[in-house]
Amino acid sequence: MHIKPFSLLLLLQSVSLIQSHTPPSDSPPTPEILQELKAKWGTDYVFSGISTFAHLPHKQCLLDPSINYDIAIIGAPFDTAVSYRPGARFGPRAIRGASARQISMSAFNPAQGINPYLDWAQILDCGDIPISPFDNNLALRQMTEAFSGLLSRPAASNSGLPPRLVTLGGDHSIALAALRALKKVHGEPVSVLHFDAHLDTWPPSRYPSAWKSDQAAFTHGTMFHLASEEGLLLPSVHAGIRTRLSGTDYGDWEHDEEHGWMRIVTDEIDDIGVSGVIEKILGRLRGKRVYLSFDIDVIDPGLAPGTGTPEIGGWTTREVLRIIRGVVKEVEVVGMDMVEVAPAYDGPGEVTALAAAQVVYEVLSGMVKKGPLERVDRVTEAGKAEKVATGKDEL
Ligand SMILES: [Mn+2]
């Protein structure tokens, strides 16, 4: 074939143009190239990146039971069991956003002497549980099944032992699902350390109505009553209580005590101080397996306004953080929730979400510092408790 000199020139020019750019390659990148790319692009600034809690890796743990972790952050964006202001379904994304400055390379906690994100624990952000906003019975089933699924796999660092969950709510009713899952997986009830302005042990009759409905019994003020009735609780502690009571007497408190609860009311901190509050909590819970349930409304609404049922005259954020630090090193935290963060009512500085993110950080620090769970009871498929030995003597 005869090619005219002019055409040949055009052909050569186009080849040269292509070669002046990096052509797409079918061959996989070499480890060196991947390492270079990681060095160049692998580090977020505190304000960049897709929002996960503390920039932790995100994995869709509910979709793949082979994903392992020691501690999973899991969102429960559910708020249709509230008695006053809704909005806590947006809590998980607000808390994740407010946790942005907890980047692993600068997350050493000087008060606890540990960086929870750079130690033995594999901590993942497992995203959110998709929960129905239309049917609370279905929502409770969905949450219970999700928590159970996430707990029914071995922890990354402890073959045979379940991992731990830190749930970002959501309204407080989600704790019932978490306690059901804990009993199922650990084979026994747990104690609850409950930070809250409110009791949340109210029987459903606290909200009287001529219109009867089983679904209406499940609310963010009744879930600990329901948990107690289901045998999910060991002796437990409220911290920061200051709610008004029903009727004309102390009947709510009496009901609370009958269900195994001890109360530390908000004002006690002025009489016994932070250390007195810590000692009072530990007097009942020291060495125990504890589910830490944290309603952000325990903090004064001047410091944490973004919540559904604010009660004035609460603890300061600083006091709460110190109480948390004092307690977590002396109990075995098997899980926690951070609930009732409703960002629609938060201030422009997102102070409520910031407080929530910091409390989670303090609890994570304590959990990681204390080390892996040492011994648990698991329920076999036959429903029989089976002890998992770890070589350590039982206490
Ligand atoms: Mn509350």
Automatic annotation (TrEMBL):
The question of whether Hydrolase is a record keyword is answered with yes
Q: Molecular function (GO) terms listed?
A: agmatinase activity; metal ion binding
Q: How is the cofactor bound?
A: Binds 2 manganese ions per subunit.
Q: Which InterPro entries match?
A: Ureohydrolase, Ureohydrolase_dom_sf, Ureohydrolase_Mn_BS
Signal sequence annotation? 1-20
Q: Which UniProt keywords apply?
A: Hydrolase, Manganese, Metal-binding, Signal
Pfam families per the UniProt record, alphabetical: Arginase (PF00491)
In the record, biological process GO terms are:
putrescine biosynthetic process from arginine, via agmatine
Residue positions annotated to bind Mn(2+) are H172, D196, H198, D200, D295, D297
Essential cofactor(s): Mn(2+)
Among PANTHER family, the record links this protein to:
ARGINASE/AGMATINASE (PTHR11358), GUANIDINO ACID HYDROLASE, MITOCHONDRIAL (PTHR11358:SF26)
Q: Would you identify the family this protein belongs to, as annotated? A: Belongs to the arginase family. Agmatinase subfamily.
Q: Name the chain's protein.
A: Similar to Putative agmatinase 2 acc. no. O42887
Source organism of the structure: Pyronema omphalodes (strain CBS 100304) (Pyronema confluens)
